[in-house]
Amino acid sequence: MLATPPIAPKTLAALHSLGIRTLADLRGHGSVKTFLLLKAAGLTVTFSTLWQLEALSSDIPVGDLSDAQKEILKQSVKNHAPVAVFPALPEMERFMQTALEQAKQAAALGEIPVGAVVVKNGEIIAAAHNACVSSCNISQHAEIRALSQAGGMLQNYRLENCDVYVTLEPCSMCASALIQARVKRVVYGAAEPKTGAAGSVVNLFADTRLNKHTAICGGISEQACQAVLQDFFAAKRR
């Protein structure tokens, strides 16, 4: 278990709240991501905390870190993809369930079953599903339609402090729109091995030249999200 000393009590409590309780947890996340998670959780931390995390992870005294190693760590922080503290799993699954309901509506209309919702302050402010076939418009993916609805409701095309839940990993078009809307967090269900732009084919969210605001989390209610797609395409093949 991580303990104090050497970790300061407030830092230790924050780590525990993030589910980082052991050295294995710390190594699994890495010192840089752990440092950024502490910042995202609202803890005031300095680079000395990063040095301490790296020393613990590497099982060396903090004084043994060289200036060159510290500079590499600083650059890693600068170049790291956006990090956020995501809601508890039951809350994410609850919002994903609403996105799944949208996906099922799409399937009933003959659209590829993908659904999305936009959440702000714990409340759903927009919900949409794919409508490319009915609109004869390739841009009418669930995410794009949900962003448009939310923008209209908030009277702002920037959706800062909003989260988007979508049943399928965003494509490059939707990933770009989510990033440009400055959505805070994106949660998706099933991976998309052919067109996914959150890591399956490319990862636009990890490119800090493009993305400085939006954190990504996948695999929430993954089996249910996969099932609605599999059932749809199985029915099409009959």
From TrEMBL:
Zn(2+) binds at residues 141, 171, 174. It is an enzyme of class 3 (hydrolase). CDD domains: nucleoside_deaminase (cd01285). One of its GO terms (biological process) is tRNA wobble adenosine to inosine editing. The active site is at residue 143. NCBIfam families: PRK10860.1. This is tRNA-specific adenosine deaminase. It comes from Neisseria animalis. The gene is tadA.
